[in-house]
Amino acid sequence: MTDRWLVMGLGNPGSRYERTRHNIGQMAVDEIVARRGDSWKQHKAGARVAETWLRPGGPKLVLAKSNGYMNTSGGPASALAKFFQIPPERVIVVHDDLDLPFDSLKLKSGGGHGGHNGIRDIAKALGTPDFVRVRVGIGRPPGRQDPADWVLGEFAGPERANLPILVADAADAAELVVDAGLVAAQQKVHAPRP
């Protein structure tokens, strides 16, 4: 019962948003589900859920995507954590991050929300900011473009070519936190690339 993790990918619902920068968290959990040949099921918490295992006999993974919009991610996250009896320190949230360059990842636990409404809402609903974040870099908009328009826009041509690798890396990072713990995962993910 104790070796159970909630991995939630943030994004907005519907086909209009599925390929946008703001939905890269959902793309990452889609990747984890696809790797295992599992499928999404509706859950009463207002989310789609896939229950699986890191590996046979390994930790249980509850993968989730909210049915609602980014800024209301907290309700489903809190309800799922309560339903599956998962403490906040075993909640992993995969989300886009404007403050990181595209194609980069950072892992952390706790801290502020950095202006990210999904993270803000989850911290409020869980009653603590002390959950793990897989921060997926999408970079800042060029020139004077509104950040809101940027995050709701689709990835540009050069980004699209690298997107499958970035999504796979984000999925790997979430799995590594479960498998090796946050500190070991940070050491690997934050190490300079060869």
List keywords for this structure.
single chain; 194 residues; Rossmann fold; seven-stranded mixed beta sheet; 6 helices; 36% helix; 21% strand; globular
Q: What is the β-strand count?
A: 7
Task: Determine the fraction of residues in helical runs and give it as a percent range.
Answer: 25-40%
Number of domains: 1
Helical segment tally? 6
**Architecture, according to CATH?**
3-Layer(aba) Sandwich
Low-pLDDT stretches: none
Listing every helix as H and every strand as E from the N terminus to the C terminus, the arrangement reads EHEEEHEEHEHHH
Strand order of the largest sheet: 2-3-4-1-5-7-6
CATH class: Alpha Beta
In CATH, the topology is named: Rossmann fold
Beta-strand content: 15-25%
Largest beta-sheet characterization: 7 strands, mixed
Instruction: Supply the helix-strand structural class.
Output: alpha/beta
CATH superfamily: Peptidyl-tRNA hydrolase
Nearest-angstrom radius of gyration?
15 Å
Q: Would you tell me the overall average pLDDT? A: 95
Alpha carbon gap, first and last residue: 39 Å
Describe this structure in words.
- 36% of the residues lie in helices and 21% in strands.
- It is of the alpha/beta class and 194 residues long.
- The chain has a single domain, classed as 3-Layer(aba) Sandwich (Rossmann fold).
- A seven-stranded mixed sheet has the order 2-3-4-1-5-7-6, sandwiched between helices.
- 40% of the residues are buried.
